[in-house]
Design brief:
- This protein has five helices and no strands.
- It is mainly alpha-helical.
Length: 73
């Protein structure tokens, strides 16, 4: 795997890729910044964990209470 593609796959940000490859223009570095299905799952899992942590201990919203009632019936 090439260094530029490997760095992108490892989660390097656009500014990090630009620095590593010596590009001054975003478009040139974005060629190597392709999202993979695995990375999409990682991002979704992280966001989900963050949301759960934020909601932990808080009262449920009206929508959440209604959905719970609907599941019971």
């Amino acid at each position: 795997m090439r260094e530029d593609g490997g760095a992108a796959h490892a989660g390097a940000t656009l500014p990090e890729l630009k620095e590593r490859m010596g590009h001054a223009i975003d478009r040139a570095a974005m060629i190597y910044l392709h999202a993979t299905d695995e990375r999409h799952r990682e991002i979704a899992d992280t966001l989900s964990a963050m949301a759960k942590a934020e909601l932990k201990g808080k009262k449920r919203s009206g929508t959440q209470r209604a959905r719970k009632r609907k599941k019971r019936s």
